[in-house]
Amino acid sequence: MTTLDPTVEGALPETEAAGRGNHPPGTFRVCATTGLTVDLAAEKFIKINAVFAVVFLLLGGIAALLLALTRWSAVHLLNAEWYYRMTTFHGLNMLILWILFMEIGILYFAATALLKSRLASVKAGWAGFACMAVGAIMLDAVILAGKADVMMTSYVPLRAHPTFYLAIILVAVGTLIGVINFLATVYIAKRDKTYSGSVPLVVFGAITAAIIAVSTLLHGAGIMIPTFLWSIDVIDHVDPAAYRLVWWGLGHQSQQVNVAAMVSVWYLLGTLTVGAKVLNQGVSRTAFLLYILFINLASAHHLLVDPGVSAGWKIWNTSYAMYLAVLASMIHGYTVPAAVEVALRKQGHTKGLFGWLGAAPWKNPGFSGFFLSLLIFGFIGGITGVTLGTEQINIIAHNTLRIPGHFHATVVGGTSLAFMALAYYVVPLIFRREFPLRWMCRAQPYVFAAGIVLMSLGMSFAGSYGVSRRSWDVEASGALHPVSYDPSVHVWLGVLGIGGSLAFVGLLMFVVPTVLAVFFGKRVEAKMPAW
Amino acid sequence: MTKEEKSGDLIEKESEHRGDGLHHAPGTFTLTLILLVSFVVYYFANWKALADVWHVR
Amino acid sequence: MSESNDPPVHWLERMLDNTWLLLALGVLIPAISYTLWGLLELANLKAATLP
Amino acid sequence: MSIESPAKNWLHAPTGTERAWIGLALLWCIVLTLAMPYWHFKGKQNSTGEAYTVEPTRFADRVQQFVDSNKVGEVNGTPIAEPPPGGDAYLQAQMWRFYPVLQFKKGQTYRLHISSLDIQHGFAVLPINMNFQVLPGYDHVLTITPTMAGEFPILCNEFCGIGHHQMTGRIIVTE
Fold first, then answer.
1. Chain B residue with Cα closest to A346
2. What are the tens digits of pLDDT across the range D129-150?
3. CB pairs under 8 A between C and D
4. What is the predicted ipTM?
5. pTM (2 d.p.)
6. At A327, phi and psi to the nearest 5?
7. What is the pairing mode between strands A28-30 and A37-39?
8. Structural domains present in chain A
9. Nearest to D21 among B20, B29, B39 (CB)
10. CB-CB: which of C9, C13, C47 is closest to D54?
11. 3-class state of residue D111 by DSSP
C-alpha cells in the first residue's frame, strides 16, 4: 500500500500572508503548518475545553467499561444500585459533557481561525466556560454521591436531588453563552470584513451546529427550569408527557448538534489529511440547510409509542417533514468521500474503482478515524436510526437494546471517533505538542471502531429479541412472573461485553497518548510532523 | 473562481468551465449504492418483522 | 454586498449566507412543528371516562 | 477547500454521479415518506397514541373493579382477569409490578387501558417484542388483537428505580 505522506504542507495552499483579519497586534500567531491566524484568546479556550472534554471522556469511558461488564451476563460485575448509577453517569459524561466541551472548542476554532477573526468576547468565553465546568463537576459529584439515580433522561416524577437539575441548567447556560459568543464572532468577522465572499464550508457547518444548539438549549431551559423548581417544591407538578416532549427537544436535538459538528469535522479532516476540496459548495451547504430546517423534528422519534400525541404529529415529525434531513445526510455521505476520492485520483491514484481508497493514508489516525467514523455512522448508525425511528417500526424497538445499539454507532462510532481523529490535529496544531507512542495512535481508530461495531451489533441483536435497555438483570431473577429469552440473547450480550471492553482499550489508546502529548510532548517548533 | 491545477485532465478542465460540479467519483458512487441497498434490505426486513406481531391501534 | 456589475446572486445562495435568517428558521420550525403542536395536543386531551 | 471562503456565485446544480446519487436518495426518501401513512391506513400495527387524562387513584379504583368482576383465577398470588371479547381491559403499572395478569382470547380485539400509579414505566410484551410507554396521569388505550396463543411475559422497559428489572407481569392468550 502506498502511503500518501499527509504532510499538511502541499496539501494546503499557501494562505495569503496579507489577511490578518481584525486581530489587534500581539493577540494572534500564524500557524506554521496551515498558515491560519490563530487568535491567542480563542486558542486558550480551545485548549481548556479540549482538556476538560478528554477528562469527561475518560470518566464516561470507565463507566462504560463497568456497564459493558455488567450487561455481559456471564460477568455481571456491578450490583443493581451501581449499575443504574453508572448508567446515569455514563450517559451524561459522554453525551453531554465530552461532546459539548469538544463542540465549544470546535466552534471557537471555526469562528476565529477560519474567519481570521478575534473572539467576540473573552469575558463571555470565561463566563461560559466557568458555568459549564462548575455545572459539570456538580453533576458528576451529585450522581456519584447517589443522589440522582434517575438516568440521563430524569423523567418526572422520578426525582433527583435539586443539585442535579441545577447542574444541568448551569451546563446548558454555559454552553449557550459559548454558542452566542461564536455567533457574535461570526457577526464581527463579517462586519470587519475579515473574509470575502461566503464563510468557508466548515464554518457554515459550525453555524449549522450552533443554530441547532440554540434550539436545543432553549428546550433545555424550557424543561429543566420548571423541573428544578419542582424539585425544590416551588411548583407542585410537572406533567410527565409534556416533560418527555420538551426534554427530548434537549436530548435528541443535542445529538443533531453532534451530527452537524461531526459532518463539519469530516469536511475539515478531508482537507487536512488528503487536501480534499469541496466539490460543490451549493450541494453541501443546501444539505446543511436541510439540517437547520428539519432535523430537529426528529426528537419525535422518542415519543412514537407514547400516549397523548397523535398519529399525525408522530408521522409528520418523525419523517422530519419528509425525510429531508435524511436526504441531507445521504448527500454528505456522498460528498465527503467523493471529495476524498477526487483529491486522491488527482494525486495519481486512479487504478480501478477503489484504487484511491487503497492508496489513502490509512496510517494517519486523522484520516482513518475520520473515514471509519463516516462508514460506521452511515452504514450502521444511519440505517438503523431511520428504520427504528419509523412510527410503526418503533413498536418493535422502543426502549430495547436496539436503541443504544443504534446510537452508539452514531454518537460513538460516528461523532466521538471523528472528534478523536480531529484531536490528532488539534494537539500538534493548537497545543503545539508532538504525539508520543505514534504506533498506538495509528492503531487506535481501528481498535476503537472494531470495539464499537461489535458492541453495537451485540446490542442490536439482543434488542431484537426484546432485551430491554437499562436493565440490570436480563433474567429478572426474583421477579414474581418469570421472564425468559431465546438463549442466543446471552451470546449477543457477550458480544456487547467484549466489544465494549475492546472499545475501552481503544479509548485508553486515545487518552494516554493525548495526555502524554499535551503535558509532556515534544514542542512543535515549526511545522507539524506528518502522520 | 481562479484555480490552477497541476493535473490537466479533461474532467477538471470541464469542471472549471462550469464552475463547480462535474467530477469523477465512481468509487464513492459504488459505495453509496451499497449503502442504499443495505438500507432498503434492512428497512423492509423491519416492516416484515413488524407485520408478524399482534395487531394494535 | 455585491458590486453592481456582478451577476445577481441566486436567492438560495443569499439565504445560505444569511446566518440570522437561518437562525430564526432553525429555531421557529421545530418550535412550531414539534413543540407547540405536540403541547397543544397534550393540552387538549379529554378526561378518561373509564367505562 | 473546506476551510476557505468561496467567491460569490458558488451555487451550481449538481452534475454527474453526484446528481445521480442525489436523485436516487431523493427517490428513497419519497418511499420512506409514503411508507408511514400507507401503513397507518393499511397496516395492522399502529401506535395512534389514543389517551385520556386520568387521576391515578381513579384509575386504580377502575382496575380493582375490573379485577373484581372479571377474575378467573390466580397465578403467583396475582389475580387473572379475563375481559369479554371486544371489551375493556385494565392494566396498572407501579413500582415494581403489573396488576393484574390478563387473559385474552386469540383473535379477539380488546381495548387495553394502561396507566401508572407512580412514575413512568414501560410496557413490553415478550417474546414478541412489542413496546409502549406508560405514564402516570394518562390512560393509554391500545386497541389490541393477540394473534397467537400462549403465555407472554410482560416487562417494564423504562427505568423506574432500583427494582426496575424485576417489574414483570403476564398476559395469557387462550385459543
1. B7
2. 999 999 999 999 999 999 999 9
3. 40
4. 0.93
5. 0.93
6. -55, -45
7. antiparallel
8. 28-520 (1.20.210.10)
9. B29
10. C47
11. strand
